[in-house]
Design a protein that fits this description.
- The protein contains 15 helices and 11 strands.
- With 452 residues, the chain is an alpha/beta fold.
- It has 2 domains: 332 residues, Alpha-Beta Complex (Amidase signature (AS) enzymes), CATH 3.90.1300; 81 residues, no CATH class.
- An 11-stranded mixed sheet has the order 1-3-2-4-6-5-10-11-9-7-8, sandwiched between helices.
- Strand 7, helix 8 and strand 8 form a beta-alpha-beta unit.
- It binds glutamine.
- The site of glutamine (GLN) has 13 residues, from loops.
- Glutamine binds next to loops.
Length: 452
């Protein structure tokens, strides 16, 4: 598939042909189930960008891959969609995802699972699995995903794409259907680092419609992209104990490559990362239980039939509309916020969140960025994860970044024995996406990995 950089230089006629080709490929690859429905465009001109099904596009049915939102037609564009239009791009197609972005495999979608194009017996990752599978499979030029606890970086890693989770506040969340508002960020999933910078520049910048949006102009990382900059990169002692041996080896190999390129490696320590899991799953479920309270059958999407009264309407609509994982999280979140348990769980988690942030800040006093695996393994086979807890534990490397609001890029650094993508991530200082993109650009050129 043509790159985003190249596509932006094409005529509208040529882009029309590419859209036709994408639609054709979506049919050819329907078994992967990366797109929800046949792709349509948000406006009739521009480079087509695939959009995760939790970002509002005017006049599109937007459902967060949930039965409860079926029939909801968005009356407005999210700010990122408006920004795409201003940058010569358009929304083209809805990407499959885990229901309400809760999951790490894209198996919780009401439209059925998405398959990994590199090996269809494996998950594409989640929750932005449709976005990553389509880019990796060659039937999307680039895509937008959302990352609450790894949902851009981990599927990008499992499928062999580049994924960027921007600094919290860098990209407007206006029009992103909230999962956990203090963690969510929209970001690009692309074929390479250059495209990642281009798409990031297009969607970043202050937005008065989002009160948590940072007072900073749009970035210009692409024009400044510099593969020759050298950095001080931290590696974390004891951080790899949860990773498979193959990932551990790849980590050591990446360190050697970075050193041979002239980067300086420094060793640092961090609090036991198991705290990241407990803190994240308390905070994200608490916020989700509150954010998802609005889906009650009165205002959006599906409404249960044959109800006796208002309470019955709420109960039936929510019982029928939400899937199992979403219900689990609403219950968990309501529990940790309930009086009597609030202090024991929620307020404690907020304190640990501060501590985690402080630990990253301490590391950044003496390093420009941190090298970390994206996930403890390569993309698992379907059915390999046996319990929700096991799935939560696989988020070990991605969620600390969201708790601290930091930017982080995931990029392929090699192949496993079976030829599957292996990815690493670089975690940066707040609002220093430029350094992450520069370092990744250099690494990408040095490694020159191809999957086909
Ligand atoms: N897997 C994590 C979760 O289920 C992250 C999801 C995300 O980033 N949206 O919450």
């Amino acid at each position: 598939m043509v790159t985003l950089k190249k596509a932006l230089s094409l005529t509208q006629e040529e882009l029309k042909e590419i859209k036709k080709e994408i639609t054709h490929q979506v049919h050819e690859n329907s078994e992967l189930n990366a797109y929800i429905d046949e792709p349509v465009e948000s406006i009739s001109s521009g480079v087509p960008i695939l959009i995760k099904d939790n970002i509002n596009v005017k006049n599109w049915e937007i459902t967060c891959a949930s039965k409860i939102l079926k029939g909801y037609v968005s009356p407005y564009n999210a700010s990122v969609i408006e920004k795409l239009h201003q940058s010569g791009m358009c929304a083209y197609g809805r990407a499959n995802m885990d229901e309400f972005a809760m999951g790490s495999t894209t198996e919780t979608s009401c439209y059925g699972k998405t398959k990994n194009p590199r090996d269809t017996s494996r998950v594409p990752g989640g929750s932005s699995g449709g976005s990553a599978a389509a880019v990796a499979g060659g039937f999307a030029i680039a895509a937008l995903g959302s990352d609450t606890g790894g949902s851009i970086r981990q599927p990008a890693g499992y499928c062999g794409c580049v994924g960027l989770k921007p600094t919290y506040g860098r990209v407007s969340r206006y029009g992103l259907i909230a999962y956990s508002s203090s963690l969510d960020q929209i970001g690009p999933i692309t074929q390479n680092v250059e495209d990642c910078a281009i798409l990031f520049d297009a969607i970043s910048g202050h937005d008065k419609m989002d009160s948590t949006s940072a007072l900073l102009p749009s970035t210009q990382t692409f024009s400044k992209l510099d593969r020759d900059r050298r950095f001080k990169i931290a590696i974390l002692d004891g951080y790899l104990k949860d990773a498979d041996i193959e990932i551990q080896r790849a980590y050591q190999e990446t360190i050697r490559t970075l050193e041979s390129m002239g980067h300086q490696i420094v060793s640092k320590t961090m609090l036991d990362t198991s705290y990241h899991i407990s803190t994240y799953y308390i905070i994200c479920t608490a916020e989700a239980s509150s954010n998802l309270a609005r889906f009650d059958g009165v205002r959006y999407g599906n409404r249960a039939q044959h109800v006796d009264n208002l309470k019955d309407l709420y109960i039936k609509t929510r019982s029928q509309g939400f899937g199992e994982e979403v219900k689990r999280r609403i219950m968990l979140g309501s529990f940790v916020l309930s009086s009597g348990y609030y202090d024991a769980y929620y307020s404690k988690a907020q304190k640990i969140r501060k501590l985690i942030h402080k630990q990253y800040e301490d590391i950044f006093c003496d390093a420009d960025m941190i090298l970390s695996p994206v996930a403890p393994s390569v993309a698992p086979k379907f059915g390999a994860t046996h319990s929700p807890l096991e799935m939560y534990l696989s988020d070990i490397y991605t969620i600390g970044v969201n708790l601290a609001g930091l930017p982080c890029i995931s990029l392929p650094i090699g192949k496993s024995k079976e030829g599957l993508p292996v990815a690493m991530q670089l975690i940066g200082k707040s609002f220093d996406e430029q350094s992450l993109l520069d370092a990744s650009y250099g690494l990408e050129q040095n490694l020159d990995i191809h999957f086909d």
